[in-house]
C-alpha cells in the first residue's frame, strides 16, 4: 500500500488539482467567487493540462521497473530515492477543499478590514446623463463615482436601484460591493450609506431603491461615503458574480 502511494502519489496530486480547477471553472461558475470572468478559459486550460500530466505520470509509474536505488533499511522500511518532495502533498488540502467545500465569496469581514478606503483622486468633471426612466439600475462603483466626482450632479432627483451585501458600523448600515481588478486577492470595498430603513442581517444580499443625498462638494472628504435615502429594500439571492470590476 505504501509503495503504491509512493508510486502513484504525484499522479494523484495532479489529478486532484485538475479536478478542483475543472469543478469550479468548467462544470460550474464557482470560479467567479475568486477571479474575473475573463480568466475562465485559462483555468479550464490549466485544469486540462494538469489532468493530462496526471495521466501521463500514472502511466509512467505503472510501467516503471524497480529502481536499483530502492533498498530495505535495517528497520524494514523501504526507501525510494525517486520520491518527490513531501511538501507537495500539501496541495491535496486546498484541492480537496475546492472539490468538496468551495470557500464562499469575500463578504463583510473583508470589507470591514478596509473600511477606511477612499477613492484616489480622479478629478472633478461631468458624467454622461443617466438613462431615462426611473428607477435606474446602477452599480455601486458608478454610484460612488458620480456621487464623489460628478460636478453636474446627474443623479440628483433620480430614483436609483443597486444590489449589494449588508455591512454595519455601529448604528449605520451600508450597501457594499467588493471591486476586483483580477481576482479576490486585490478586492477593495465600495460602500453606500443607507438611510431611511432598518438594517437587514449582515452579509445578506439586498436590492435597494432610493434617491441620492448630496453631501459636501464633489471631491471633498465630506462627500464620502455617499448616501442613499432608501424607499425599498428587498432581500435577494447572491448574484452569480458577487464582484464588480474596477
From TrEMBL:
The keyword Methyltransferase does not apply. The chain crosses the membrane at residues 12-32, 44-67, 87-109. Pfam families: DUF1980, DUF1980_C. Keywords: Membrane, Transmembrane, Transmembrane helix. It comes from the Bacteria. Residues 16-112, 147-243 form the DUF1980 domain. PANTHER family: UPF0703 PROTEIN YCGQ. NCBIfam families: TIGR03943 family putative permease subunit (TIGR03943). This is Membrane protein.
